[in-house]
Amino acid sequence: MNWQLAEAKNKLSELFQRALSEGPQEITRRGKERVVVLSGEEYERLKGNQPSFKEHLLNAPSFEGLDIERDGDTGREVQM
Fold it and tell me: Which is deepest, 1, 41, 60, 64, by most CB within 10 Å?
């Protein structure tokens, strides 16, 4: 269901219940900007079992042996 922002503010309890019973509820402002309210269960399902950012970095491939030395070339001279 679509809600205008003012209506969503006035009927927050109803919006909350509908998100739980009917699924995601879309809120618009001036017919353009929008957000979606959904149940915590639906959010967890969509999010899936993703590692945290920290876990992702800790499990990244090793950069050992990767040559990251900067080239000593200073570029070219430009005539103005």
Answer: 1
